[in-house]
Design a protein that fits this description.
There is one protein chain. By secondary structure, the chain is of the alpha+beta class. It has one domain. The protein is built from 3 helices and 4 strands; from the N terminus they run αααββββ. It has helices spanning about 1-10, 15-60, 75-85, and strands spanning about 105-115, 120-125, 140-150, 160-170. A 4-stranded antiparallel β-sheet has the order 1-2-3-4. Helix 2 (about 15-60) packs antiparallel against helix 3. It is elongated, with a radius of gyration of 26 Å. It starts with a helix and ends with a strand.
Length: about 170
């Protein structure tokens, strides 16, 4: 019995026990940093894609033509957004329709949804600066959502899907 008590009183292997308790927590912390960084990267990419789509939709196809300005089709806007997503190696087939309310239309404005579930709203009122009442600024907004799934093994957050929203707007150039 004394030999057992003597062995329990020694501190041999304490470092191994401490490492066994701390390393999983450090690993989960580092894994959280990596997945948060990936979510932020995807959010920045879809925001950039939405902004590029809004710029594409708001610029005439021929700025120097004497005839009335013609703007790119919704398919061209869709293509601009898909190109940005594919450059970042994001799958455009995962795009979800936005749940945000439809913006208020200016004269002749309206919204359409592209083949990739991207909402393109042309001739809509853009956000005015806070606290001022300038004349309404009309432009184009583009919005869509993209799912992100994080992997946190052995936690309640494992395989949870977060829906990220990409929105962009641009004044219409005539």
């Amino acid at each position: 019995m004394r030999s057992i008590l003597r062995k329990l009183g020694r501190e041999d292997g304490v470092e191994i026990l401490e490492a066994a308790l701390v390393l999983p927590l450090v690993f989960m912390f580092l894994l959280g940093i990596v997945w948060f960084g990936r979510a932020f990267n995807i959010y920045a990419t879809i925001t950039q894609a939405a902004q590029q789509g809004a710029i594409t939709a708001a610029r005439p196809t021929c700025a120097t033509c004497p005839a009335a300005n013609t703007f790119p089709s919704d398919a061209a806007v869709d293509g601009a957004i898909v190109a940005v997503l594919q450059a970042a190696r994001l799958d455009p087939t995962q795009i979800l329709s936005p749940t945000a309310p439809t913006p208020t239309a200016c004269a002749g404005g309206g919204c359409a949804t592209t083949t990739h579930n991207i909402r393109v709203c042309r001739s809509v009122i853009l956000n005015p600066p806070a606290g001022t009442t300038p004349p309404d600024q009309c432009g184009t907004t583009v919005s869509f959502q993209y799912p992100f799934r994080a992997y946190f093994p052995s936690t309640s957050l494992n395989l949870q899907t977060v829906t990220l929203t990409g929105q962009g707007q641009s004044r219409t150039e005539n």
